[in-house]
Design brief:
Number of strands: 8
Radius of gyration: 26 Å
Shape: flat
Helix content: 55-70%
CATH class of the largest domain: Alpha Beta
Distance between the termini: 27 Å
Number of helices: 21
Strand content: 5-15%
Order of helices and strands: HHHHEHEHEHEHEHEHEEHHHHHHHHHHH
Strand order of the largest sheet: 3-2-4-1-5-6-7-8
Number of domains: 3
Largest sheet: 8 strands, mixed
CATH superfamily of the largest domain: P-loop containing nucleotide triphosphate hydrolases
């Protein structure tokens, strides 16, 4: 979402390229361009001005070491200040009492119901909790149905009452059921409107008073920019919420809400939504987001996602097969499926330092592996286990069965062979240098 902002900040830093020292003139020019970039990203004007004034003050107050350039120094200062602007450090959700009651708030269309499902899935699978979803959106058509579908999808029970029009009563009865059934977390999905109105605010205030939630989260669509910040202020004045959830960060948004909202309402961003899938959400880490804005990638999040799919015993078995050169197409597809579970493909690749900028105009679809899986699925069990058996006639049959061309099949087999060679090299320290030289030829 920060592609445009990243480009403009990078151009601003180029003003310092070749400069031997920090001066008020060159820093002022650079900071002016950074401020313009922030305003173009729909960052609140006061926030942008205060941010750039702080960067300028800190830059002029430091001597440039001989080991670094003025551009590198200003990049570090900007990175640190961006992280502080977005909260400085991640803030965990409060899970103290049992059941912990979490009240969701926000406008209609912000992704509140979808995120309620994502949060339930996260708490169940990653925090070991037993959540209960409560459907208190009684106005939006099919809102209750949507929550039930999500609950069934993630294996979480949903409490609802289709006959009642009293959100307070439903919330109270849902919490009571959670206590009786031993649910450790309750997530209450409330009604939203197209704009802030008195009826909506009165209802959610009444629900808050009735259930006394441990945590109130405000869900906001990041694509609405500065409007998101103004809506957050209105909700915070009435609810005094505990944290913000930014949804739709995978969309074409300028990012102003993410950069402004903490300063304006003084409440931390706790989670971000990055897609439609139930796994497409992350705990918000300001430092990592600052790195991504400045094109430094996000290796830590990439590793964490990989570890979530990592099975020690499976990895040990795979290592033995690689050592014996027995890595086959079954293993190949299994690895692809693990990668798919890690999330949006373009988002994953952009976490690699330096790669995000290179692929910003490249369309990497989530179904990018479908063709590969179709080819492998058209192989016989024997062929998958013995790739060396794939002669010309077999390749023609596989192409026909998978709806692809022989060229596609040949290309996949060649890439598979290169992958297998590289994996063997990784297990042999003597061949590591040779492997590094060959990696530039990998597709």
């Amino acid at each position: 979402m920060f592609d445009s902002l990243s480009d403009k900040i990078e151009r601003a830093f180029k003003l310092l390229k070749g400069q031997g020292k920090i001066t008020e003139v060159n820093v002022s020019e650079t900071v002016k361009e950074i401020r313009k970039a922030l305003l173009d990203a729909d960052v609140n004007y006061k926030v942008a001005k205060q941010f750039t004034d702080t960067v300028k003050e800190k830059a002029l107050g430091q001597n440039v070491l001989t080991a670094i350039s003025p551009g590198q120094l200003l990049t570090k200062i900007t990175r640190d200040e961006l992280a502080l602007l977005m909260g400085g450090a991640s803030v965990d959700i409060k899970l103290s009492s049992s059941p912990t009651v979490i009240l969701m708030s926000g406008l209609q269309g912000s992704g509140k119901t979808t995120f309620s499902g994502k949060l339930a899935s996260y708490l169940k699978n990653k925090r070991g909790k037993k959540p209960l979803l409560i459907a208190c959106d009684l106005y939006r058509p099919a809102a209750i149905d949507q929550l039930h579908v999500l609950g069934e999808q993630i294996g979480v029970e949903v409490f609802s009452d289709r006959e009642s029009k009293d959100a307070v009563s439903i919330a109270k009865r849902g919490v009571q059921q959670a206590k009786e059934n031993g649910n450790s977390v309750v997530i209450i999905d409330t009604a939203g409107r197209l704009a802030v109105d008195e009826v909506m605010m009165n209802e959610i205030e009444a629900v808050k008073k009735a259930v006394d939630p441990d945590e109130i989260l405000f869900v906001v669509d990041a694509m609405t920019g500065q409007d998101a910040v103004n809506t957050a202020k209105a909700f915070n004045e009435r609810l005094n919420f505990d944290g913000v959830v930014l949804t739709k960060l995978d969309g074409d948004t300028r990012g102003g809400a993410a950069l402004s909202i903490k300063s304006v309402v003084n409440k931390p961003i706790k989670f971000v939504g990055t897609g439609e899938k139930m796994e497409a959400m992350d705990v918000f880490h300001p430092e990592r987001m600052a790195d991504r804005i400045l094109g430094m990638g996000d290796v830590v999040t990439l590793v964490e996602r990989a570890q979530e799919q990592f099975n020690v015993e499976d990895a040990r078995k795979l290592q033995k097969k690689i050592a014996k050169n027995q890595f086959d197409f079954n293993d190949f597809v299994a690895q692809l499926q693990q990668i798919k579970k890690m999330g949006n493909m373009k988002d994953l690749v952009s976490m690699i330092p330096g790669v995000g900028k290179a692929i910003k105009d490249v369309d990497i679809k989530d179904d990018a592996f479908n063709g590969i899986e179709a080819i492998v699925a058209s192989m016989t069990p024997y062929e998958r286990e013995h790739p060396e058996s794939l002669n010309g006639s077999r390749r023609q049959r596989i192409a026909k069965g998978s709806g692809t061309s022989v060229t596609d099949v040949n290309k996949l087999i060649k890439q598979f062979d290169e992958t297998r060679k590289m994996m063997r090299m990784m297990g042999d320290k003597k061949n590591m240098m040779k492997m590094m030289s060959q990696m530039k030829n990998m597709r």
